[in-house]
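Section 3.1 - Work completed
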Amino acid sequence: MPLSRSTNRSCQSLPKRWRLLGLGIAAVLLVVDWFLPPLPTPRFLERWPDAGTGFTPWKPLLAGVDHARANFSSPRPMKCHVVRIDLADTNVSLLARPPAPAAPFETDGEYVSSFVRSQAVQVAINTTPFAPDRVVPGRPVDLQGLAVSQGQRFSEAAGNLDSLVITRDNQARLVPAGGKTADAWNGAGGFLITLRHGQNVAEKLQPEPATVVGLSADGRRMFWLVVDGRQPGYSEGATPAETAEMLLSLGATEALNMDGGGSSTLACAGGWKGVRVLNRPYHWVWSGLERPVGAALGVRSQPPR
């Protein structure tokens, strides 16, 4: 009889132990997830416009900041996001990622989504190329081009690469290699200018994931174009010439190819973690995971309209 009671008590306590174990595992996963970049939305839950219909109408994200998407099927699958920023809107301010001491280099690796949270910007992209190619958050990064944040210059423009300069009064321009960048309040390095005075001057390269910054002829509007790639059948990337044509169709006359590949990221404030990644970055481990980068550019504005 005592044995029977003991066995009965053990059976009754087993479900409670499993519940506590489950709650413990869930708590650990939530804590770990908080420190990881946002996980990608499963592809089957994504909702894209019909293929081949071009960019969607602009949808307001913030005061002075709009968003559009495109789902191209030709010449290959390409899923694209573009943000349009009204630099003349007094609600709008830009911020390049500040440096993080990381001897022997200028800064460390950080997720674009972490930059959104830490600096309270509402939308951000990756910018300046860096080395090594694969880094982890907090490890030293050698920037390969211009990096200026609110007047603090911590990486000079590369001698053979072009740059984006944003002055203190929100005037933006693209600067060819060797050009003057001394008035940069915020600045970032890219690769090469692909659109100049409305002319497509892009070099001929293979399709890749891409981040491209464009400017309108009057300098009032800045465009951030992000194209996903290296994901067969889903989005296979774009050439510099193709991204230049996309931006030209959207109203840009100048464009600069920024760091691409697995770095290409567009993040915005929102979601339960306070940030979400709008695109699906290429990652060698799991498609959709973010890659830490060395530099980013963000925009702040008023609450959504």
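Second construct:
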Amino acid sequence: MDDAGTGWAHLARGADDFLSKAASKQEVTARVRAGIRAAALVRTLERARDEIQQKQAALERELQSAARYVTSLLPIPGTVLPGVQMVHAYRPSLALGGDLFNVVPWNDHLFGLYLLDASGHGVSPALRSASFSTFLRGDSLLHQVGSNDPGAILTEANKQFPLTEDGNYFTIIFARLDLGSHTLSYATAGHNGAFLHRRSGEVSWLTHPNLPLGFDQSNTYKTMEIPVAPGDRLYLLSDGLYEVPAPTGELWGQTRLEEIVRELGCRPLTEVIPRAIDEAIRWLGHDRFPDDVAVMGFEITG
């Protein structure tokens, strides 16, 4: 077989290149240099791949660390005050967002509660929410606001947390539950995810159209007040729960969430909240929520 035929045979068996016996010194040198360049390129690509993998692993560790930090700020479920039980759930999305919630105890019959959401995803909004939670501590509110009135609290927060340079902002509901007068006072800033499920079965959404925080520093937020009674339940939730799309694109929505709550009636909150999340997952078609899911449930027992 001639050199050409032998070359094709070697290439067919997987060889990358072939030189005939008659190849000149210049051709051999050129081929060797080309091989060296190819090997160097492979090594460069391998180093780039390793660097990308290392950066990805570092980013995942950073996100996991931020998620653990946010989780450490959440309240302990159980008895908030004698006569009020709380259950909550928090499911951060893969991208990690800025949902955060907590309670603010003031005395043996009065406490505050809030759920806030920083726009955007990633470590930055999560840390901005954590910074905001410091402002919402009881001692901080006493010093900076001088009141436990929800509207006054959001009005002051609106001044202290303007839009970021990137246009990011907060939405929030802040409420105050007074067991002495059996009243619920609340104020909202761009947040529509809260409702009262009364013992009678009636569901009332706590909606009051208003700008999110930071858009207009001169804006004031009003406090709304409604009566509550033993057996009533209050739910605060992020839109990540009910604004989940089916594969067709249709959102699950507040109405379907409300139907689940009505269906479960007076079953324990420890059953109602997980069931609502399971139904959202069923609608979504998988358990990877596109946005953070945060839910707080309070039951007035006395």
